[in-house]
Amino acid sequence: MFDTIVNVINQIDKMVWGWWMILLLLGTHIFMTVRTGFIQRKIGKAIRLSVTKDPDAEGEVSQFGALTTALASTIGTGNIIGVGTAVALGGPGAVFWCWITGVFGIATKYSESLIAVKYRVKTKDGRMQGGAMYALERGLNMKWLGMIFAFLAGFASFGIGCATQVNAIATVCEENLHIAPALVGIVVAALTALVIFGGIRSIANVCEKLVPFMAAFYILGCVIILGLNFDFIIPAIKTICRLAFTPGAAAGGLVGRGIMMAMQYGIARGLFSNESGLGSAPIAAAAAQTRNPVRQALVSSTGTFWDTVVVCLMTGLVLVTSIMKNPSIDMSNITDGGILTTLAFQQIPVLGPFILVVGIISFAYSTVLGWAYYGERCVEYFAGKAGLIPYRVVYIIVAAVAPVVSLNLVWTVADILNALMAIPNLVAVLLLSNVIVKETKKYINDLDKKDDTPVEVIDR
Fold this sequence. Notes:
The chain is mainly alpha-helical. The model has no long low-confidence stretch (mean pLDDT 87). The protein has 19 helices and five strands. The chain has one domain: Amino acid/polyamine transporter I (Up-down Bundle), CATH 1.20.1740. Belongs to the alanine or glycine:cation symporter (AGCS) (TC 2.A.25) family. Keywords: Cell membrane, Membrane, Symport, Transmembrane, Transmembrane helix, Transport.
């Protein structure tokens, strides 16, 4: 009976993450790129804005605090193991398609964050609330669909945001540091409790310090490894571009599986990594101190740039150059992204495994914090403020037991919920695209202009 249920859930997962979902997300990325006048051209300005404080504007945390909270959840194990999975199953060409989703995904992240700020509300105790659920309710009068989004995202947080991430931490600590998984679960749960009971300000405060460190450390480590592999960088880039469109073989046992396989796994892993279109990051964006929706939307869009255009690309280049330089890595029998990534980083003595361990631990823990905030906001939307304490308690319990339970089914269910929550979010983005265009035209050339529309105060 149990095996039948597992098989059914696996089939549902394949269906919801099939080509139709990939085309829906990538299609939205391209559509919003056109509608916003290729907003990606403003990425330099957006990066500068992300480190600019706007204390006089209304909001709970700084623009940078909101960005790092969002980055905490998007820069996760998918940036390391997920890219490895794409290369293992789709060939080196998958790195190209993963990167492309980041370039076009910037427009969708900008759009969903804009409407999150545009339609945000304030509770009587001064907390900012926003996201797809409020955009659907206040912008489209579709509260029922907002409730569905909040329900799916709230439950997805236990799996994709907590259990699978803590399990990844426990696995890497056991294999490399010989620490018992049960102890890891207890420590991570305790550290998580200390942060999330402080609310968004506490989470943002930790993320502001942790995210820049972990990203800079990982990127620097990748740069050093690429320096050691410098003679294979140009051949790797040529191989990635060539095998993105044609099947064939390359040095180191790398095999291109054709454009369809490269696109399928590259795009899927890219979308999963940067979360553009899923509706998660805008929940954090809605809490930002910002003068107008466009200003924060630009800041939020840099999350996809850093996550996929930079970090995923760096991981992909490290993997491909290391494999090409070390033919001893037998690609013919590897289908697990985690195994491939571990083997590739192990080719660099001492430094490689150290970068991998620190990267996975910090990336995974930051994801636990970021998704805790997303889950809280969604639970509060459909269950009220009374649901916050029970949610936090359950979240911490899940973190504690995650290392000692089998997570295959949990991961699959969370994967399904993750895909399904994208649908109502994309409905909001597409149906409110005229609003997005109007707001963009209104503020894009005067980002210091203050939005005088009062934020609605709700009794919740």
